[in-house]
Structure formats: C-alpha cells, structure tokens
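Long-time lurker, finally posting.

We've been working with Serine O-acetyltransferase (Limosilactobacillus albertensis) and I want a structural starting point before designing mutants. I don't trust myself to interpret raw outputs, so I'm hoping someone here can both generate the structure tokens and explain anything notable. Sequence follows.
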Amino acid sequence: MMAAPLKIGILNLMHDKEDTQQRFTKVLSAGSYRVNIQYFYPQNHYTSRPVPKLVQQISQPLDLGQAAAMDAFIITGAPIEQLPFEKITYLDEVHQLIDCLVANNIPQLYICWGAMAAANYLYGISKMPLPEKIFGVFHNYIQHEDPLLTGLDDGFLTPHARYAEMDINKIAHDPRLIINATTKDNRLFSFRARDKHQYFLFSHLEYGQDALLKEYLRERNTHPGIEYIKPQNYFRDPLHMKDPQFSWQRTQRVFFDNWLQAVANDTKTQQLVKE
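Top reply, 14 upvotes:
Generated this for you. Predicted structure of Serine O-acetyltransferase:
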C-alpha cells in the first residue's frame, strides 16, 4: 500500500510570495516522498488593509486547528531582519503558531527570519545586526554531524542573504541546542534543538538559480539611491552580473530529502505510539 502524502504546512512570510511558494513546492516535490503542501498567511499582517487577491488565491489565513493536523511545518524567512521583533505586527500570531507546533510535537523547520523569531521566542537568543549583509553563495563547514546533513561534504555550498545574525556564542553555550554548520566566518548555516523536532536554518536553501539576482534587483529598484551589496560567488561573470550559477543545487536536493525522510520517520513513530 502506498503511504499517504506527508502533510506540510508553510507560513509564507516572504515578499515574493508566489515565487516563494513555487520554490518550496518544487524542492519538496522533487524528493522521494509525496507531499501535500498547504500555504498560510498571517492574518494580523492585514488588519489595516485588505488581503491582496493573489495572497488569497495561493494561500489561506493561518488556522491553528489546521496547523495542528500537519505532519510538519515550515515558517519561511521574511525581509524584515533589520526591524526589532516588537515592531512586527504579526509576531504574536507567529508565537501562537510556534506554541501550537510545540504542544502537538510537530516537526518544525524555521528558515532565516523565521529561524530568528523562533530562536528568540523559544530560547531567548538575541538577534544582532551584521556589519554588512551576508549575500551570496558560501561554503559551510560541519560542526556536528546531523541526519539532515547526511550525504553532504564538508564545505558544502549554500546561498545566504540576511542583514542580521543570532548570538552564536549563546547558542553554543545553551545545552538545549547544537550548532550543525557554519561558514568560515562563523556565520550560521543551521542549529537544532537536541531533544525536540526543531531545526533552525539560516540559509535560503529553497532558492533557485535566479533568486539571489531577483533579490538584489528588488532591493535596488525599491531604493535606487542606495548602493546595495551584490551577491558574491554567484555569477560566472561578476563584473557584468551575468550567468548566475546554481552551485547549491545538490545541497538543496540532499537537505530537503533528508528533512522529509526525518518527517516521515517521525510520522511513523507517532503512528506506532498511537497504535
């Protein structure tokens, strides 16, 4: 008998919502497991304005009852890492979702700003601005072996794009947490909770080949008077910003397949416990 698809919930906080959903659908559907993905948006983000039609068409308002029925849940990044947490209008809604996932023992994958918000809420880890945006494709080095990194060589490539970092020293000295991998400059790739189903990923590993270029152009076009840093180690022709390379494609495939395998194993364990 074919196993039922894994039910994956995703709270999409990214600016480019349609592209983001296409990226996650592609990477999660490319692995060895069948998935049924439901995208949500935070209702509190639209308390003072109408929900855009596109958002309504491709996702639905966050419902904790539905979230509790998922096999796993992802909270995406958001281009708001320069803002203090208390300035985020939907932060309480994110916290309520995290509480729901923890209470129901649902595997959690937090990405970029989602990882920052969850690490701060769950473990009191502070967010700190970086001297400049970490932006481009970088080697990542394994600090502790982890099932989600199985099959990746030390120095694996991934895209990073953020203006802030979490207090890595506090993470390293928290016995509840374990750092899995960092860049050579000690910027976080990921850490996880030791005894809970929580994984904090700081690379935008869902990004496809052109995503870093799109992010750069979006920032530049939004504020044309500002000179934004260009993505590093990304273009075959960096002088003219041409021919972006998808050098993290293998990392992407291996990581998300490993994550889905972990979710599937957790689902089987939960079913055995219930039986």
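Before you design anything, note these points.
The first strand starts at residue 6 and ends at 11.
The mean pLDDT is 94.
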